[in-house]
Design a protein that fits this description.
Strand content: 15-25%
CATH architecture of the largest domain: 3-Layer(aba) Sandwich
CATH topology of the largest domain: Rossmann fold
CATH superfamily of the largest domain: Glycogen Phosphorylase B
Strand order of the largest sheet: 3-2-1-4-5-6-7
Helix content: 40-55%
Shape: elongated
Number of helices: 15
Number of strands: 13
Number of domains: 2
Oligomer: single chain
C-alpha cells in the first residue's frame, strides 16, 4: 500500500506512535509518506520506503496566525496526486482530521477518491476538542472520517460522551517494538554511574506539564526516600520543571534527583530503573508506562483514563486515585522493600507488555487499511 501519515512531529505520544507505525509499515514493504510541518524526531530515513514531505507556511503580515490547516490540505492534495496514495492516516483530530477532509473534497473535484483514517490520541478530545471553540469542527471531522480509531477504551468512551459521533470507533492500542527495545537497551547498563549499590532507581518520563502532576512525583519520591535509599531520574522538559526543582530543594532531596531533560535514549535510561512513577491527572493510554513495562519496570500510577488498561492492579504495579500521594508512596515502598517481590513485579510487567507488541497490533492497522480501501475505492 501507499500510505500517507499526518502527525505532530514531536516527542509527544501521538507523534511517537505515528512515526513508529510508519517505520514498521515501511519495514514490511509499504510505501510511507509523512506529511508534517517538520521531520518527525524519531524518523529514520535508512529505509527507502519512507519519504517526508514538509508543509511550508508563507509568512504573510495579513495573518495574525499562519493558516497551517490550509497549507496542510494543499500539501496533502499535492502528495496524493503525485505519489498516488491509497489512504491517508491522520493522528490527532486537531487540525489534521479537518485538513484531511478538506483535501479529500478537493481531490473529489479531480476525480480522486481517498479514504481517511483518523486516530484519536487523547488531549485532542478531552482537553482541546471538547472546548466550545473547537467542538463543532472536531465533531464534524470525526464524523467525516471513513474510519475512526482510539488508543484505549477509555478514550473511546470519552469521545462518545463528549461528542455526537455517528460512526463506530475501533480501539487499537498503542504498541511496543520489542526488537527495537532490545537493540537500543542492550548496551552495558551503567547503573553504578547513577546510584550507589544499595540505592533503588525510580524514573518519571513526561513533558512536565501540569496534567502530569510532576510535583506529586517529587512528593512521592520524598516519601519513598524516607524509607528506602533511592535516586529519581526526571526525564523530559516543560513548564513544571523549575517548580519541581524548587520543591525538591525545599524538601531537601534535590541531590537525590537527576533532571535529564529531553532524551532520545529513553529505553537505555529505563534499563537502570526499578520503578516508574506516573501520577497523571489524565492519560488516554499511558505510552510512557508501557515503555517502562517493556523494560521490566513496574508502575505506580493514577487510575485515570486508559491507565487501568495498561497497568494491572497488583500485577504490573499499583493504581491509586489522582492526587493520593500517600497511597502511591505506600505501594511503591511495598514493591521496593522486598527484592523477591520487586523481581516478580518486574517480570509480570514485562509479560503483560507483550500483549502490546507491534507484532500483535500492526496487523490490526493493516487489515483496517485494506478493508476501508476496498469499501471506499
Amino acid at each position: 500500500m501507499n500510505i500517507g501519515i499526518v502527525c505532530y512531529p514531536t516527542y509527544g505520544g501521538s507523534g511517537v506512535l505515528a512515526t513508529e507505525l510508519g517505520m514498521a509499515l515501511a519495514n514490511r514493504g509499504h510505501k510511507i509518506h509523512f506529511v508534517t510541518s517538520h521531520q518527525p524526531v524519531k524518523l529514520n530515513f535508512l529505509n527507502p520506503n519512507l519519504r517526508f514531505h514538509e508543509v511550508f507556511i508563507e509568512d504573510y503580515p495579513l495573518f495574525h496566525y499562519q493558516p497551517y490547516e490550509l497549507a496542510l490540505s494543499s500539501k496533502l492534495v499535492e502528495v496524493v496526486q503525485k505519489y498516488k496514495l491509497d489512504i491517508l492516516h491522520v493522528h490527532y483530530a486537531i487540525p489534521h482530521a479537518y485538513a484531511a477532509y478538506m483535501a479529500k473534497q478537493m481531490l473529489k473535484d479531480k476525480g480522486i477518491e481517498i479514504p481517511i483514517v483518523t486516530t484519536l490520541h487523547g488531549t485532542d478530545i478531552t482537553l482541546v476538542g471538547s472546548h466550545p471553540v473547537y467542538k463543532t469542527a472536531v465533531e464534524f471531522s470525526i464524523n467525516k472520517s471513513d474510519v475512526v480509531t482510539a488508543v484505549s477504551n477509555s478514550l473511546k468512551n470519552d469521545t462518545l460522551r463528549l461528542f455526537n459521533i455517528e460512526k463506530p470507533i475501533e480501539v487499537i492500542y498503542n504498541f511496543i517494538d520489542f526488537d527495537k527495545q532490545k537493540s537500543e537497551a542492550d548496551t552495558e547498563c551503567m547503573r553504578g554511574s547513577l546510584a550507589e549499590n544499595d540505592e533503588k532507581i525510580i524514573a518519571h518520563v513526561s513533558n512536565l506539564r501540569k496534567v502530569k502532576r510532576v510535583l506529586d512525583v517529587i512528593e512521592i519520591f520524598s516519601k519513598i526516600q524516607d524509607k528506602i535509599p533511592s535516586k529519581l531520574l526526571m526525564v523530559g522538559d516543560g513548564p513544571y520543571r523549575e517548580k519541581a526543582e524548587m520543591l525538591a530543594k525545599k524538601l531537601g532531596i534535590k541531590h537525590k534527583i537527576l533532571f535529564l531533560g529531553k532524551s532520545d535514549e529513553i529505553r537505555k535510561i529505563l534499563c537502570f530503573t526499578d520503578l516508574f512513577l506516573l501520577p497523571s491527572e489524565t492519560e488516554s493510554f499511558g505510552l510512557a508506562a508501557l515503555e517502562a513495562m517493556a523494560a521490566k519496570t513496574p508502575i505506580i500510577s493514577s487510575n485515570t483514563g486508559g491507565l487501568p488498561e495498561v497497568n494491572i492492579q497488583g500485577v504490573t504495579g499499583y493504581l491509586s486515585n489522582v492526587g493520593d500521594i500517600e497511597d502511591m508512596a505506600k505501594n511503591a515502598i511495598s514493591i521496593l522493600e522486598n527484592e523477591q517481590r520487586l523481581q516478580q513485579f518486574k517480570m509480570a510487567a514485562f509479560e503483560h507488555a507483550q500483549k502490546f507488541s507491534i507484532d500483535n497490533i500492526l496487523p490490526k492497522y493493516i487489515d483496517m487499511y485494506e478493508n476501508v480501501i476496498k469499501i471506499c475505492c
